[in-house]
Amino acid sequence: MRIPAHSVCTAIRDDIVAGVHERGSRLTEELLARRYGVSRVPVREALRTLEAEGFVVTRRHAGACVAEPTEQEAADLLEMRALLEPLGAARAAQRRTEAHLKVLRGLVRLGQERARRGTSDDLRSLGGWFHETLAQASGSPALIAMLTQLRHKIAWMYAVEAPADPGESWAEHGAIVDAVARGDSERARAVTALHTERSTAAHRLRLGGPRERGERVRNPQHAVNTASPRH
């Protein structure tokens, strides 16, 4: 069975974001194929996609390497997110379905409950699912793709400090859902813009690879999951 290139692409991207493939390091097709248990063909296709996304660069005499973004490029990502997430929320207020609202409300309830109990271990994941669902509710494939790519790159370049008051952050999430449910696009845009501005202050630029940051590098054996990706 031929492993689809998008599965290989996801696996390599996840490892770049996690710091397994450090910035500036070479990405040879042979080693990547062995690591992910695939042939070189989907690896080659994945590297082309990742280069288009900005995670990989091709260097003379070195071939494919993990990109090394500048501080300005990292700052630009946060500025782009500050512009696009409010737009996505405004579109969601116009185009969301009842299924989107059900998921968003469920995430807000769960997030607020965890915040009240002080069990904040998975609040970041819940927040990620919230913003992913909000983007999906925009009904714009181009905007969804851009926001998804921004989330990946921001997670790669920044560490995020936990909010001093997670309950306040989830109250903002709740206000966004309320505006989206009412179809109030301007309110959804304004509340999301404020929420994004506040969360931006918690981002701290990462320096170096995982070894320099004292993080644990994952096991180098990483077989590609051949199951259909979750949507």
From TrEMBL:
Domain annotation HTH gntR-type: ranges: 2-69
Chain positions covered by the region annotation Disordered: 199-231
Gene3D superfamilies assigned to the protein according to its UniProt record, in alphabetical order: GntR ligand-binding domain-like (1.20.120.530), Winged helix-like DNA-binding domain superfamily/Winged helix DNA-binding domain (1.10.10.10)
Assigned keywords, A-Z: DNA-binding, Transcription, Transcription regulation
Family matches, as InterPro entries: GntR_C, TF_FadR/GntR_C, Tscrpt_reg_HTH_GntR, WH-like_DNA-bd_sf, WH_DNA-bd_sf
Biased composition (Basic and acidic residues): 209-218
Biased composition (Polar residues): 222-231
TM spans (from-to): none
SMART domains in the record: FCD (SM00895), HTH_GNTR (SM00345)
Protein known as: GntR family transcriptional regulator
Organism: Streptomyces levis
